[in-house]
Amino acid sequence: MAQKKIQRFEAINSFANVLQYPEGISGKWKDFFKNENPINLELACGKGEYTVGLSGLYPERNFIGVDLKGNRLYIGALKCLKNNQQNAAFLRIQIDKINEYFFPAEVAEIWITFPDPQLRTSRAKKRLTHPRFLRLYQKILKSHGLIHLKTDSPVLFRFTKLVIELYQLPVHAYSEDVYGDPEISRELSIRTHYEGLDIAGTRKTLYLQFSLPESPLPDHDAQLQELVKEIEKPILV
Ligand SMILES: C[S@@+](CC[C@H](N)C(=O)[O-])C[C@H]1O[C@@H](n2cnc3c(N)ncnc32)[C@H](O)[C@@H]1O
């Protein structure tokens, strides 16, 4: 591991706002934050631009950036420590286990910011808006809690729209060009590291805001997989 990475991994061990695979934290976040304010997650937060930005905008809410990579979390965590943003924290875990770290309805909203689009169709199950993940979010989200997806990947965006349609999820906001809107909100104006990289090469940021039903999601997963294979089939010329 590069020297800088090692130093950052060591540093977060002593950061009061970073929790790494904490045991017994579910249901206890109000003790951690010392208040009962609503908890918002930023999944796949990387350097945590949304956690830093939103916790600054909304001091009456709590924000938790979630990622596996400690050297990335370090950046956001250090900013929050320097700014004394006590309503922000960072959780280093596998998102696949997110329901082990929160009680049912302990989370008010979820932001998913520029997650890996997992472009290979065979990896669609790893996309953070796959029903496999939505079922985990359903376990921890308050009823009608919002999910925000910000991405530059047309593939992930199209996939998420397909999931929304197939599982009949309510959509609350939608944009195919976030920065083309002259009345862009303060939330959506926050730019992330990966956003700046424009990996998809479209120079467009896409946004979806939706919610989940209270009843369990139906099992259309096999049908979804077939549709994805069909839609994402490479065009042979
Ligand atoms: C493309 S980066 C985006 C980072 C940041 N949101 C941004 O926009 O700059 C995706 C992030 O998701 C994290 N990630 C991917 N799969 C994960 C998982 N299963 N559990 C935890 N983190 C994950 C990676 O470590 C990486 O930091």
Question: Which features does this protein show?
Answer:
8 helices, alpha/beta, 237 residues, single chain, 20% strand, binds S-adenosylmethionine, 8 strands, Rossmann fold, 32% helix
Write structural notes for this entry.
There is one protein chain. The chain is an alpha/beta fold. It has one domain (25-231): Rossmann fold. The protein is 32% helix and 20% strand. It has 8 helices and 8 strands, in the order αβαβαβαββαβαβαβα. The protein has helices at 3-12, 29-33, 49-57, 70-82, 131-140, 154-166, 193-197, 221-231; strands spanning 18-20, 39-43, 62-67, 88-92, 107-113, 141-151, 171-175, 206-211. An 8-stranded mixed β-sheet has the order 1-4-3-2-5-6-8-7, sandwiched between helices. β3, α4 and β4 (88-92) form a beta-alpha-beta unit. α1 (3-12) packs across α4. It is globular. The chain starts with a helix and ends in a 6-residue tail after the last helix. The mean pLDDT is 95.
Brief digest:
With 237 residues, this protein is α/β, with parallel strands linked by helices. Helices cover 32% and strands 20% of the residues. The chain has a single domain (25-231), classed as Rossmann fold, CATH 3.40.50.
Topology (elements, then pairings):
Blueprint: H1 3-12, E1 18-20, H2 29-33, E2 39-43, H3 49-57, E3 62-67, H4 70-82, E4 88-92, E5 107-113, H5 131-140, E6 141-151, H6 154-166, E7 171-175, H7 193-197, E8 206-211, H8 221-231
Parallel strand pairs: 1-4, 2-3, 2-5, 3-4, 5-6
Antiparallel strand pairs: 6-8, 7-8
